[in-house]
Amino acid sequence: MGQFSVKIYRPSGSVLNANQHRFHPCRTDLICRSQQLIDFQKNIPYFLTRSSSMITSNIKQRIIGKGRGAIFAPADFLDIGSRASVDQALSRLSDQGVIRRLTRGLYDYPKKSPRFGFLSPSTDDIAKAVARKDGQILQPSPSMAANRLGLSTQVPSKPTYMTDGPTRTKKVGRQVIQFRNASSKTLVGAGHKTGVVFQALRYIGKDRVDSQIVDQLARTLDDKDRMLLAKQSRHVPAWMHPIVQQIVAHA
Question: Which of 1, 87, 117, 244 has the fewest CB atoms inside 10 Å of its own CB, making it the most exposed?
């Protein structure tokens, strides 16, 4: 019989001999791509499981690195994974007993006591975490600020914080925290020691500030804080200006 040859035409237009094709099967682009797609689809569950496991592991490492007592929300981990994957990871860690769910969208890595077991987080830590989760500014109320700085022994029955967000009451476990909307002047120094000083002065009032109070406030601030206090005082009521000058000049 006469010899004949079989030629295979590739998408590129080049011609390939059948014998060459036998030794180079992947030169047929369509076949190769189809096989690669099949292989990828088979491995999708593996890739998803591995990715989910890595996200959970990375979140767990960050939480442990923050130390016990840390409070956090899903938004704190969006640089690690998507919101859905972060939510799944936190739920998994909660089920494993690594972290504790305080309320919707808020978790903590609880402190442990040999005698009492897991301890409740502080009101201040919860309030800061709520404000951070909602992207809001937070400032202690005047009475809380005065108590914190030792200028008052009165402990507010309901912890209250001033914020640029809406007025509301937040219940976390057995703790009830009030958030009150406030003007920008009331929020001057929020997040710094200076803000606590301004709030404490509001509680005391301009007619009750004496040298002893000035000394006590000055001792709570270092040189950097005093410089910031002087700078921020431009945005507070005028009656505070001479008091701030005394605090800044305190040696």
Answer: 1
